[in-house]
Amino acid sequence: MSDTSENEQPRRRQARGERRIAQLLQAAAQVFCTTGYTAASTNAIAREAGVSPGTLYQFFPNKEAIAIELGDRLMHEMRETYGEALAPVDPATPLEEAIGSAVDRFMAFNTEHPVFFALMHGPDLPGGITEAHDQLHATLIGRVEGLLASLLPEAPPADLTRTAHVCLGIYKAGLELVLAHEGAERAAYVREVKNVLVRYLEPLVGDRLGRA
After folding, report:
1. In sequence order, what are the residues at sequence separation of 6 or more whose Cβ sits closer than 8 angstroms to the Cβ of residue 74?
2. Eight-state DSSP code of residue 92
3. Mean per-residue pLDDT for 187-205?
Protein backbone atom coordinates (compact mmCIF):
# COMPACT_ATOMS: atom_id res chain seq x y z
CA MET A 1 0.00 0.00 0.00
CA SER A 2 1.37 3.41 -0.93
CA ASP A 3 2.00 6.18 1.58
CA THR A 4 -0.72 8.20 -0.16
CA SER A 5 -3.35 5.52 0.44
CA GLU A 6 -2.26 5.11 4.06
CA ASN A 7 -2.65 8.86 4.62
CA GLU A 8 -6.04 9.06 2.89
CA GLN A 9 -7.73 6.48 5.12
CA PRO A 10 -7.25 8.39 8.42
CA ARG A 11 -8.37 11.59 6.69
CA ARG A 12 -11.54 9.88 5.44
CA ARG A 13 -12.25 8.50 8.92
CA GLN A 14 -11.68 11.93 10.42
CA ALA A 15 -14.01 13.54 7.87
CA ARG A 16 -16.72 10.96 8.62
CA GLY A 17 -16.26 11.61 12.33
CA GLU A 18 -16.62 15.36 11.86
CA ARG A 19 -19.80 14.87 9.82
CA ARG A 20 -21.22 12.61 12.52
CA ILE A 21 -20.37 15.14 15.24
CA ALA A 22 -22.02 17.91 13.22
CA GLN A 23 -25.09 15.69 12.77
CA LEU A 24 -25.30 15.02 16.52
CA LEU A 25 -24.83 18.70 17.41
CA GLN A 26 -27.56 19.72 14.99
CA ALA A 27 -29.90 17.14 16.53
CA ALA A 28 -28.99 18.29 20.04
CA ALA A 29 -29.75 21.90 19.10
CA GLN A 30 -33.22 20.86 17.99
CA VAL A 31 -33.87 18.83 21.15
CA PHE A 32 -32.55 21.54 23.49
CA CYS A 33 -34.77 24.14 21.79
CA THR A 34 -37.83 21.88 21.98
CA THR A 35 -37.55 20.44 25.50
CA GLY A 36 -34.93 22.56 27.28
CA TYR A 37 -31.59 21.27 28.51
CA THR A 38 -32.79 19.57 31.70
CA ALA A 39 -35.53 17.52 30.04
CA ALA A 40 -33.32 16.53 27.10
CA SER A 41 -31.72 13.09 27.00
CA THR A 42 -29.01 11.41 24.98
CA ASN A 43 -31.64 8.94 23.72
CA ALA A 44 -33.75 11.81 22.39
CA ILE A 45 -30.72 13.38 20.72
CA ALA A 46 -29.72 10.07 19.12
CA ARG A 47 -33.30 9.55 17.93
CA GLU A 48 -33.40 13.07 16.43
CA ALA A 49 -30.06 12.38 14.68
CA GLY A 50 -31.29 9.02 13.36
CA VAL A 51 -28.51 7.04 15.04
CA SER A 52 -28.29 4.54 17.89
CA PRO A 53 -27.38 5.68 21.43
CA GLY A 54 -24.23 3.56 21.06
CA THR A 55 -23.15 5.64 18.07
CA LEU A 56 -23.70 8.84 20.06
CA TYR A 57 -21.58 7.53 22.94
CA GLN A 58 -18.69 6.95 20.54
CA PHE A 59 -18.39 10.74 20.33
CA PHE A 60 -19.92 12.15 23.53
CA PRO A 61 -20.10 10.57 27.02
CA ASN A 62 -23.24 12.47 28.07
CA LYS A 63 -25.54 15.35 27.18
CA GLU A 64 -23.45 17.88 29.10
CA ALA A 65 -20.47 17.12 26.86
CA ILE A 66 -22.73 17.66 23.84
CA ALA A 67 -23.99 20.96 25.24
CA ILE A 68 -20.45 22.14 26.03
CA GLU A 69 -19.23 21.37 22.50
CA LEU A 70 -22.28 23.03 20.98
CA GLY A 71 -21.91 26.03 23.27
CA ASP A 72 -18.19 26.38 22.51
CA ARG A 73 -18.83 26.44 18.77
CA LEU A 74 -21.67 28.93 19.09
CA MET A 75 -19.70 31.21 21.41
CA HIS A 76 -16.78 31.22 18.96
CA GLU A 77 -19.16 32.27 16.19
CA MET A 78 -20.80 34.83 18.48
CA ARG A 79 -17.43 36.42 19.24
CA GLU A 80 -16.86 36.87 15.52
CA THR A 81 -20.34 38.36 15.18
CA TYR A 82 -20.02 40.95 17.93
CA GLY A 83 -16.49 41.78 16.84
CA GLU A 84 -18.04 43.07 13.62
CA ALA A 85 -21.31 44.33 15.07
CA LEU A 86 -19.91 46.36 17.96
CA ALA A 87 -16.99 48.12 16.34
CA PRO A 88 -16.76 51.84 17.16
CA VAL A 89 -18.74 53.98 14.72
CA ASP A 90 -17.94 57.14 12.82
CA PRO A 91 -19.11 60.17 14.85
CA ALA A 92 -21.22 61.29 11.87
CA THR A 93 -23.26 58.06 11.85
CA PRO A 94 -26.93 58.63 12.78
CA LEU A 95 -27.94 56.89 16.01
CA GLU A 96 -30.65 54.85 14.29
CA GLU A 97 -28.12 53.50 11.80
CA ALA A 98 -25.53 52.62 14.46
CA ILE A 99 -28.09 50.79 16.62
CA GLY A 100 -29.85 49.17 13.66
CA SER A 101 -26.63 47.73 12.25
CA ALA A 102 -25.61 46.17 15.57
CA VAL A 103 -29.08 44.79 16.33
CA ASP A 104 -29.44 43.31 12.84
CA ARG A 105 -26.20 41.34 13.16
CA PHE A 106 -27.07 39.98 16.58
CA MET A 107 -30.64 39.16 15.62
CA ALA A 108 -29.44 37.33 12.51
CA PHE A 109 -27.12 35.19 14.63
CA ASN A 110 -29.71 34.43 17.30
CA THR A 111 -32.55 33.66 14.91
CA GLU A 112 -30.25 31.38 12.91
CA HIS A 113 -29.11 29.65 16.13
CA PRO A 114 -32.07 29.76 18.56
CA VAL A 115 -30.37 27.09 20.68
CA PHE A 116 -27.85 29.73 21.77
CA PHE A 117 -30.60 31.56 23.66
CA ALA A 118 -32.05 28.27 24.94
CA LEU A 119 -28.69 27.20 26.39
CA MET A 120 -27.22 30.50 27.52
CA HIS A 121 -30.28 32.24 28.94
CA GLY A 122 -32.41 29.36 30.11
CA PRO A 123 -32.91 28.52 33.80
CA ASP A 124 -30.88 25.31 33.49
CA LEU A 125 -27.53 26.43 32.07
CA PRO A 126 -25.20 23.38 31.95
CA GLY A 127 -22.54 23.68 34.63
CA GLY A 128 -19.65 23.23 32.22
CA ILE A 129 -20.80 26.21 30.14
CA THR A 130 -21.32 28.67 33.00
CA GLU A 131 -17.74 29.96 33.20
CA ALA A 132 -17.40 30.33 29.43
CA HIS A 133 -20.76 32.12 29.29
CA ASP A 134 -19.71 34.52 32.06
CA GLN A 135 -16.52 35.32 30.15
CA LEU A 136 -18.50 35.88 26.97
CA HIS A 137 -20.93 38.15 28.79
CA ALA A 138 -18.10 40.21 30.30
CA THR A 139 -16.44 40.55 26.90
CA LEU A 140 -19.74 41.49 25.30
CA ILE A 141 -20.34 44.20 27.89
CA GLY A 142 -16.85 45.53 27.15
CA ARG A 143 -17.59 45.69 23.43
CA VAL A 144 -20.91 47.47 24.05
CA GLU A 145 -19.03 49.95 26.24
CA GLY A 146 -16.60 50.52 23.35
CA LEU A 147 -19.45 51.20 20.95
CA LEU A 148 -21.11 53.55 23.43
CA ALA A 149 -17.81 55.37 24.02
CA SER A 150 -17.76 56.30 20.34
CA LEU A 151 -21.30 57.67 20.74
CA LEU A 152 -20.71 59.28 24.15
CA PRO A 153 -17.00 60.24 24.23
CA GLU A 154 -17.36 62.43 27.33
CA ALA A 155 -19.32 59.93 29.46
CA PRO A 156 -17.61 58.63 32.66
CA PRO A 157 -16.64 54.93 32.55
CA ALA A 158 -19.19 54.03 35.25
CA ASP A 159 -21.98 55.58 33.16
CA LEU A 160 -20.86 53.65 30.09
CA THR A 161 -20.86 50.38 32.03
CA ARG A 162 -24.34 51.02 33.43
CA THR A 163 -25.69 52.01 30.03
CA ALA A 164 -24.11 48.93 28.43
CA HIS A 165 -25.84 46.66 30.95
CA VAL A 166 -29.20 48.33 30.31
CA CYS A 167 -28.77 48.06 26.53
CA LEU A 168 -27.92 44.38 26.78
CA GLY A 169 -30.87 43.79 29.10
CA ILE A 170 -33.23 45.48 26.65
CA TYR A 171 -31.83 43.40 23.80
CA LYS A 172 -32.19 40.09 25.68
CA ALA A 173 -35.77 40.87 26.68
CA GLY A 174 -36.61 41.78 23.11
CA LEU A 175 -34.84 38.73 21.72
CA GLU A 176 -37.10 36.40 23.70
CA LEU A 177 -40.13 38.02 22.02
CA VAL A 178 -38.47 37.93 18.59
CA LEU A 179 -37.71 34.20 18.85
CA ALA A 180 -41.33 33.51 19.83
CA HIS A 181 -42.61 34.84 16.49
CA GLU A 182 -42.08 34.22 12.79
CA GLY A 183 -42.25 36.11 9.52
CA ALA A 184 -43.65 39.63 9.44
CA GLU A 185 -44.47 39.59 13.15
CA ARG A 186 -40.86 38.70 13.99
CA ALA A 187 -39.63 41.57 11.83
CA ALA A 188 -42.03 43.90 13.63
CA TYR A 189 -40.62 42.87 17.01
CA VAL A 190 -37.07 43.47 15.75
CA ARG A 191 -38.10 47.00 14.76
CA GLU A 192 -39.58 47.52 18.23
CA VAL A 193 -36.32 46.43 19.89
CA LYS A 194 -34.41 48.94 17.75
CA ASN A 195 -36.92 51.67 18.60
CA VAL A 196 -36.64 51.04 22.35
CA LEU A 197 -32.82 51.16 22.22
CA VAL A 198 -32.84 54.33 20.13
CA ARG A 199 -35.35 56.04 22.44
CA TYR A 200 -33.28 55.02 25.46
CA LEU A 201 -30.01 56.32 24.00
CA GLU A 202 -31.37 59.38 22.20
CA PRO A 203 -31.48 61.67 25.26
CA LEU A 204 -27.94 60.63 26.15
CA VAL A 205 -26.50 61.14 22.70
CA GLY A 206 -28.61 64.10 21.62
CA ASP A 207 -28.49 65.06 17.97
CA ARG A 208 -24.68 65.11 17.72
CA LEU A 209 -24.57 62.03 15.47
CA GLY A 210 -27.18 63.47 13.16
CA ARG A 211 -24.93 66.34 12.17
CA ALA A 212 -22.41 66.07 9.38
Report:
1. 113, 115, 116, 119
2. T
3. 95
